[in-house]
Amino acid sequence: MQIWVQIFVVIAAVALVLQTAILVALYLIFNRISVDITRISTSVESQLTPLLNRVRLLIEESQSDLHDIVHDTAEVARTVRANSRRFDRLLEEAADRLRGQIVHADRLVTGAMDTVEDSVKELQNSLVEPVRTVTAFVRGVKAGVNFFRGRSHVPERRREAEDEGLFV
Questions:
Q1: Domain coordinates of the chain in residue numbers?
Q2: Model pTM?
Q3: How far apart are CA 160 and CA 154, in angstroms?
Q4: Triad 147, 150, 153: Cα angle to 5°
Q5: Residues with Cβ < 8 Å from 79, sequence gap 6 or more?
Q6: CA 76 to the chain's CA centroid
């Protein structure tokens, strides 16, 4: 029984270490993604700044195209915002799913440990009780045979010990 508990404690510890490793790996991945997004954002910003300067010159030179350029710029900004919102939602969903999987794995491990513990108790009861019953029956038959053979003069202590085995 002790060894089973130790085995399941080791299994639970390994599962916890594995879960921690997965969480650390996910943290590192999300951190790297965040750095990449910041780098891309900086790159996009550095590329947009000269473009905006050129646009200003074009606006001054061509008042008739001003409306079209402003409309296109606004659409690009909306697309960037929408994509960043989608990315935020994806990160939140991934974190929620990870939390759910961790809770599910914890429930599975706990359920498995409870089932194994119940099974060990059931196995112990199913093996020990029949052995006690058979032992008591054999002692009873032996006492009966001894009685009929005429050996009913068993010392008192021995008779008490045999009688104790008959009670189940």
A1: 2-126
A2: 0.33
A3: 10
A4: 80
A5: none
A6: 42
Decide: 136 and 164 in contact? Cβ < 8 Å: no
Q: What is the largest CA-CA distance in the chain?
A: 132
Q: Which among 138, 143, 123, 148 has a CA at the least distance from the CA of 168?
A: 138
Indicate the DSSP class of residue 115.
Answer: H
Give residue-wise pLDDT tens across range 72-90.
888 888 998 888 899 889 8
Looking at every residue in the chain, the average pLDDT score rounds to 84
Number of residues that this document lists for the chain = 168
- State the DSSP string of the chain: -HHHHHHHHHHHHHHHHHHHHHHHHHHHHHHHHHHHHHHHHHHHHHHHHHHHHHHHHHHHH-GGGHHHHHHHHHHHHHHHHHHHHHHHHHHHHHHHHHHHHHHHHHHHHHHHHHHHHHHHHHHHHHHHHHHHHHHHHHHHHHHHHHHHHT-----HHHHHHHHHHH--
Confirm if 78 and 84 have CB atoms less than 8 A apart: no
